[in-house]
C-alpha cells in the first residue's frame, strides 16, 4: 500500500468530521425519513443520469404519485424508480443483518434491470461474455478499459467479497473508496455496473456503521465531476494512482455530507414552520406530512390517504394553495396537480 501523504491524511480527517456531523444530525431529527426519503430519490435520479437517463426528480415523484399506472411515462422514469426499489430493498436487507454479499449484488441488479433497457443483459446474472469500456460502438481492440474475462470472474469476485468482510486496519472510508474502484474495475455485469456500484456504497456506509442511517449519497458529486470520476478510475487501473482517487472520493464525502446537512436543516425548518402554522388541524398536518414524502399531490391522493370526501380534499388543497404552500401546475379544471414548491426546491438543491 502507498504511503500516506499529508494531503491524504487531511482529506480523510475532513471526511471523518463531515460524516460524524451528518450522523449527528440524523440522530436529532424528529423523523430521519424527512431527509432520508428525498436523498434517496435524488440519488436515484442522479446515479441514473450518469448512465444517460433524462428523468428528473419531478418525473419520479409524479410517477410514484400516479402509482405507476399511467402509460405516458417515459422508460427513463421506470429505470429511476427501479433504482429506488433496489436501494430500499438493499437497505432492508442490511437492517435485517444480512451481509453485503455477491448474492445481494445479484438481487440488486435483478431489481434494477427489471423491465427496462438493458434487461437483455441477464438481470441478476454475472456476465458470461467479455465486455469493455470505450467510445460508443468501439471494438474490443479500441477499448479504453477491458475488465477481467468471464472465466476470471469467480476468483476476482470472491476476492472482492472477502475484502468486504475481512478485518482491516484501513479506515472505513478508505476501504469504501477501494471497494468502489474494485467493483467498477471488475464490471461483473453486461449492463448496470455503475448503478450497482453506487448502490453498494450507500449500503456499506450503513453496514459498516459509518453512519447510523442512509444519509450520504455520492452520485451527485460523481455527476458534477463526471469526467474526473472516470479519468481517476482509469488512472488507478493504468498507473496505480491510488492517492488521487482516494482524495477525490474523500472530498466527495465531505461535499455531499455538507450538502445533506444543509438540506436537512432547511427541511426541518420548513417542516417546523408548517407544523406550527397548521397545529390546530390534524388533517392538514397529515397533508403536510404527505408533501414531505412527495411534494406533488392530487385530489385523489388526498382522498385516499387521508380518508376524506372529495369536497373536503379540495377544500384542504385550496387552503394550502391560498397560503402559498401549494401551487397548481396543470391549469386544468379536472385532473389538477399541485406542487409544494418550497419543499421541492430544497430537495432539488444538490450544491
Task: Give your account of this protein's structure.
This protein is an all-alpha fold and 351 residues long. It has two domains: 6-264, Orthogonal Bundle (Fic-like fold); 280-348, Winged helix-like DNA-binding domain superfamily/Winged helix DNA-binding domain (Arc Repressor Mutant, subunit A). The protein is 63% helix and 2% strand. The chain has 15 helices and three strands. The protein has helices at residues 6-28, 33-50, 57-65, 75-95, 102-112, 153-165, 172-186, 193-207, 219-224, 226-239, 242-277, 282-293, 299-306, 310-322, 341-348; strands at residues 296-298, 327-328, 337-339. The chain has a three-stranded antiparallel beta sheet with strand order 1-3-2. Helix 4 (75-95) packs antiparallel against helix 5. The protein starts with 5 loop residues before the first helix and ends with a helix. The mean pLDDT is 93.
Amino acid at each position: 500500500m502507498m504511503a500516506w501523504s499529508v494531503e491524504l491524511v487531511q482529506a480523510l480527517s475532513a471526511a471523518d468530521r463531515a460524516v460524524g456531523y451528518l450522523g449527528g444530525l440524523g440522530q436529532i431529527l424528529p423523523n430521519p425519513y424527512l431527509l432520508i426519503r428525498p436523498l434517496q430519490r435524488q440519488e436515484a435520479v442522479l446515479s441514473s443520469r450518469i448512465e444517460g437517463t433524462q428523468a428528473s426528480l419531478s418525473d419520479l415523484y409524479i410517477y410514484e404519485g400516479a402509482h405507476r399506472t399511467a402509460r405516458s411515462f417515459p422508460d427513463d422514469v421506470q429505470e429511476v424508480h427501479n433504482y429506488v426499489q433496489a436501494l430500499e430493498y438493499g437497505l432492508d436487507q442490511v437492517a435485517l443483518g444480512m451481509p453485503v454479499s455477491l448474492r445481494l449484488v445479484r438481487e440488486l441488479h435483478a431489481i434494477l434491470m427489471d423491465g427496462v433497457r438493458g434487461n437483455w443483459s441477464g438481470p441478476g446474472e454475472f456476465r458470461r461474455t467479455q465486455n469493455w469500456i470505450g467510445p460508443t460502438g468501439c471494438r474490443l481492440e479500441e477499448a479504453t478499459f477491458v475488465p477481467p474475462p468471464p472465466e476470471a470472474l469467480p476468483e476476482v469476485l470472491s476476492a472482492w467479497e472477502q475484502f468486504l468482510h475481512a478485518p482491516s486496519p484501513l479506515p472505513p472510508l478508505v476501504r469504501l473508496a477501494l471497494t468502489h474502484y474494485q467493483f467498477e474495475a471488475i464490471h461483473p455485469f453486461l449492463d448496470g455496473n455503475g448503478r450497482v456500484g453506487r448502490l453498494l456504497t450507500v449500503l456499506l456506509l450503513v453496514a459498516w456503521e459509518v453512519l447510523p442511517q442512509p444519509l450520504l449519497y455520492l452520485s451527485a458529486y460523481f455527476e458534477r465531476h463526471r469526467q474526473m470520476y472516470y479519468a481517476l478510475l482509469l488512472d488507478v487501473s493504468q498507473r496505480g494512482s491510488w492517492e488521487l482517487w482516494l482524495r477525490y472520493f474523500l472530498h466527495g464525502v465531505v461535499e455531499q455530507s455538507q450538502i445533506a446537512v444543509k438540506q436537512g436543516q432547511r427541511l426541518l425548518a420548513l417542516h417546523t414552520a408548517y407544523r406550527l402554522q397548521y397545529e390546530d388541524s390534524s388533517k392538514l398536518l397529515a397533508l403536510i406530512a404527505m408533501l414531505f414524502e412527495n411534494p406533488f399531490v392530487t385530489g385523489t391522493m388526498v382522498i385516499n390517504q387521508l380518508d376524506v370526501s372529495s369536497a373536503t380534499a379540495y377544500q384542504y388543497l385550496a387552503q394550502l394553495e391560498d397560503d402559498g404552500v401549494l401551487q397548481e401546475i396543470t391549469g386544468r379544471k379536472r385532473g389538477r396537480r399541485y406542487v409544494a414548491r418550497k419543499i421541492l426546491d430544497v430537495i432539488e438543491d444538490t450544491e
